[in-house]
Amino acid sequence: MTSDRNDLDDRGSGEPRNREAGQSNKPQWANGLRQLYDSVVEEDIPDQFKDLLSKLDAKD
């Protein structure tokens, strides 16, 4: 029974770990989440937000 537990995912999901070479142990949704995060980070700051920041800086 101990060997069965060692083959399970660390998060306790009960899914087997991926042991094949070249494949990651990351969940499948992790790549999609990373791509979404990167796309948000790369977006330009809207002009209205830039104007607001300039006004706030001017008050100092």
**What's the number of domains?**
1
Q: Largest beta sheet, briefly?
A: none
Rg, nearest Å:
22 Å
Task: Enumerate how many helices there are, as a single number.
Answer: 3
Please state the structural category.
Answer: mainly alpha
**Count of DSSP strands:** 0
Give a description of the structure.
The mean pLDDT is 76. The protein contains three helices and no strands. It has 60 residues and is mainly alpha-helical. The N and C termini lie far apart (66 Å). It has one domain (2-59). The protein has helices at residues 2-6, 28-41, 47-59.
Structure summarized in a few sentences:
This protein has one domain.
Task: Please give the structural blueprint.
Layout: H1 2-6, H2 28-41, H3 47-59
Distinctive features:
60 residues; mainly alpha; 53% helix
